[in-house]
Amino acid sequence: MATKLGLCLPQAPQYDIGRDVPDVARTAEQIGYESLWVYERALFPEPATQGLYGVPGLPWPPHYRSVPDALVTLTLAASATERVRLGTGVLVVPLHGPFQLAKTLGTLDAASGGRVVTGLGTGWSLDEYAAAGVAPFEERGRVLDEFLDVCQAVWGPDPVEYEGRLTKIAPSVVGPKPARPIPVLLPANSKKALTRLIDRADGWMPIAMGADQLAAQWQQVQDMASERGRTKPIATSVRVNGVQYTAKAYDGADRAPFQGNVEQIVTDLKAHTEIGLDEFFLDLQASTRDAQELKDVAAEVFTAARAAGI
User: Fold this and answer.
1) Do 129 and 98 meet the contact criterion of CB atoms below 8 Å apart?
2) What is the pLDDT, as a whole number, of residue 184?
């Protein structure tokens, strides 16, 4: 069975959100992509309190300067498509009120006919937490746990009732309900996060940073699932971050994964898909100049991937 392929929607500054998001979404569905994805960045601090991903001195990339709201972007894509799943990869949960975010996701799933997939994370930017966090950065894991509880309540049968540290819902009718149970995907960057994934989530959302590393991470997930007695299958959607496309081939052997022409990108993708994970979604937008080039490269990559047996 072919690996599922997804595409990240255009959120970089060179795109027009109102025009390009529906256009790219519609075209991706026609090409054959099975899912469309957004990520979340709340702001671009100048100067930043910390480096990218919390790494000292690592600059934030220019395409983070103006990132449209993730769920507004996904809603535009939902209105332009009929079949593709609509994924968040990822939402930074502690930047949102738990009840309102759960209700928004439920509404989008109802409106799209049951196509939402929620990839969730806790973030790393202290500047974003200062602007929008609902609790201190140190409590980010507890906020994510409460949000998962709130989702279970809000997406479940009425009357909804819940009381937590951040959220109190008196017995209420809360609708619309999701069209079906919304899949929840989590990363697993620590033992605590891995335990949360195994115990509470439907699937795993890693970042592809090399086939050997991804295979080792997947083995850790499987080992923890066995250790904790999980029998339910673990869905997998792998983000291929920052694909750098160039029409020319790279010379030499020091090319980073997913950088090069279409043939090189597909070669790297094939190595990763041989691990046996369900889905890979590609972020091509940073290195394409406009929506037309993004659509053209997305079509080339998809056709070449299927020709390569992916």
Assistant:
1) no
2) 98
**Helical residues (DSSP H) of 97-251, grouped into ranges:** 98-112, 126-132, 140-154, 191-200, 211-227
* The token pair that represents 186 in the structure block: 């989590």
Q: CA 67: distance to chain centroid?
A: 14
Integer-rounded Cα radius of gyration of the chain: 19
Q: How far apart are CA 45 and CA 192, in angstroms?
A: 29
pLDDT tens-place string over residues 140-197: 999 999 999 999 999 999 999 999 999 999 999 999 999 999 999 999 989 999 999 9
Which tokens go with 13?
Answer: 């500054």
User: What is the sign, positive or negative, of the torsion defined by CA atoms of 44, 10, 293, 283?
Assistant: positive
Coil, helix or strand at residue 192: helix
Q: Are 203 and 242 in contact (CB under 8 A)?
A: no
- Token pair in block for residue 12: 């970089």
**What is the C-alpha separation between 85 and 194, in angstroms, rounded?**
25
Which residue in this structure is represented by tokens 């899949």? 183
pLDDT at 226: 97
Amino acid in position 306: R
Collapsing DSSP to helix, strand or coil, 34 comes out as coil
Helix (H, G, I), strand (E, B) or coil at 55: coil
> Quick check: 253 pLDDT over 90?
no
The rounded distance, in Å, linking the Cα atoms of 181 and 178 is: 7
- Whole-angstrom distance, CA of residue 300 vs CA of residue 278: 21
Name the token pair of 198: 């195994």
Residue 60 carries which side chain, given as an amino acid letter?
W
DSSP track, 119-133 = EEE----HHHHHHH-
pTM: 0.97
What is the identity of the amino acid at 49?
T
Q: Which helix or strand (DSSP H or E) is residue 80 part of?
A: helix 70-80
Give the separation between CA 293 and CA 299, rounded to whole angstroms.
10
What b/e readout covers 22-45, taking b as 16+ CB neighbours within 10 angstroms? bbbbbbbbebebbbbbbbbbbbbb
